[in-house]
Amino acid sequence: MSTPMVLAEGVHKRFGRNEVLKGIDLEVAAGEVMCLLGPSGSGKSTFLRCINHLEKINSGRLSVDGELVGYRQEGERLHELRESEVSRKRAEIGMVFQHFNLFGHMTALENTTCAPIRVKGIPRDQARARASELLGRVGLSDKLGAYPAQLSGGQKQRVAIARALAMEPKLMLFDEPTSALDPELVGDVLDAMKQLARDGMTMVVVTHEMGFAREVADSVVFMDGGLVVESGPPEQVITSPQHERTRSFLSKVL
Amino acid sequence: MSTPEDTAETGRPEEIRAVPVRHPGRWVAALLVLVLAAAAGRSVVTDSHFEWSVVGNYLFDERVLSGLRLTLELTVIAMAIGVALGVILAVMRLSPNPLVSGSSWLYIWFFRGTPVLVQLIFWYNIAALYPKLALGIPFGPSFVHPDVNTLFTPYRAAILGLGLNEGAYMAEIVRAGIISVDEGQADAARALGMTRLQTMRRVVLPQAMRVIIPPTGNETISMLKTTSLVEVIAVMDLLFSVSNIYSQNYKTIPLLIVASIWYLVCTSILYVGQYYLERYYGRGYTRAENARLWERMRALASPRAAR
Q1: How many other CB atoms are found less than 10 A from the CB of residue A125?
Q2: How far apart are alpha carbons B241 and B254 in whole angstroms?
Q3: Cβ of A38 under 8 Å from any chain B Cβ?
């Protein structure tokens, strides 16, 4: 049995006195696409940020590809990882944000080559060739020299996807990637994500796009109030939900 | 405003011809300003107390030029120290370590809270406080024993006083710049595996520069003139050179004009430098605005062609 790509066991996260995650258990297999659904404030985004240690969890265990996130276990004791070690692990996990977060002072090409050059030490020429190939794959061959301010939301998000892929991650996290886009532009971004799923990438996607979840996801998790309410294959969770809370949420968004 | 479509298809729709609003107040104000400017100009040109020939004689005087050189030197070095120190202090101030951020706060509190003139005189007289310095292991043996009086020449005291003081002000400017960069930028950089230092250097600071440059230009111009304070510790800057001359020949006004001309020339050059710096760090943000500015200028030049 292969190790799961993401394994969460009783993950808790507090911000001050506000408990955002109240014990999350879930498992994402390698090559699986999992969609996290749920109302805002249910902790989906926070959980996603815990996976690459942008947020530190307060209790429970969270591991990626068999290794604990942010800690090293020696016998019974947990040791916090040094910053450089945390960074090295983050480099293996791609993340795409709701508000794109492209670097405003860099062109699309520079956005995509920056981390491979600085973090992985890939030679400049090689990084540029790879970046133009990735940008071409998301349909932006003619925008290599454009700054984020000159791109539409959909184009920005596709640059962000290419930027994450340039690091050749083993896992991709998507935090509401289409929520800030005009309805017209959502399709291009979803197409890029579908392509990625077809290529076998392991993906955890926080989204409100039910169509995408139904079509692409292998499993769907519905969260509310910091807990997993129900999970399973999309036809089960979306089409015939078991819990009242899931039903009422879906009836509003579908 | 007509849209491109209707110009292309039907030619131009008929333009509105209306009687423009009159602005009599503007004409009165313009007249008033012109009269006052003419009066001031006449006094400057014809009043013999300005002694323009004396101004001309001393404008390129060797003593004045060497004073100018020193003023520029002090400005450049003190600002360089100030900017470097400011970046370090600002990053320290934002550190999660309370000892680090606290010591930065204390530095800024002290150097902003005391007059720069006092600091200059303090550094000049540092030998009174520490006649001997020793460089070595704290509480252990020391290796070098420089004499404080020869180490802290007036020139070095001036650089130290101005630079350390500037660092405190620059720290707050840099901090404001760093805070102005959206937190998502740092999130994205860290998610890509960059360390805190890389994130700061490659992603946050370059974007903070857009906010940092304008007040830094302000500080540089201010520094150029603040250097004139060093005359109290007998450093021969522009103002001190000039005042040495007029204390001998009593041509106070023309010589102050000489100094003012040079200060104005230098600040004008700084304006140009600041413009180009702003343009460089505004890349990715201002390109569209520049285009719009250019369009606006064209529209001003020929209102019809731009339509």
Answers
A1: 9
A2: 14
A3: no
State pTM to two decimals. 0.81
CA distance B281 to chain A (A): 8
> Which chain A residues are within 8 Å of B191, Cβ to Cβ?
52, 54, 90, 93-95, 164
**How many DSSP H helices and E strands does chain A contain?**
9, 12
Question: How many other β-carbons are positioned within 10 Å of the β-carbon of residue A169?
Answer: 21
Query: Maximum Cα–Cα distance for chain B, whole Å?
Result: 93
Q: Is B272 exposed, middle or buried (0-12, 13-18, 19+ CB in 10 A)?
A: exposed
Whether the Cβ atoms of residue A190 and residue A205 lie closer than 8 Å to each other? no
End-to-end alpha carbon distance in chain A? 37
Separation between Cα atoms, residue A37 and residue A238, nearest integer Å: 10
Summarize pLDDT for B153-165 with one digit per residue, the tens: 899 999 999 999 9
Judging contacts by C-beta atoms under 8 Å, the chain B residues touching residue A90 are 190-193
Task: Kindly identify which residue of chain B lies nearest to residue A112, measuring between CA atoms.
Answer: B192
Q: Which residues of B touch A94 (CB under 8 A)?
A: 191
What ipTM was reported for this prediction? 0.92
Cα gap B210→B177, rounded to integer Å = 8
Query: Number of CB pairs < 8 Å for A and B?
Result: 82
Pick the residue from chain A with its C-alpha nearest to B286. Answer: A149
Contact B163, B120 (CB under 8 A): no
Label residue A17 by pLDDT band (50, 70, 90): very high
**Mutation for testing the A interface, residue in B97, B192, B286, B289 having most A CBs under 10 Å:** B192
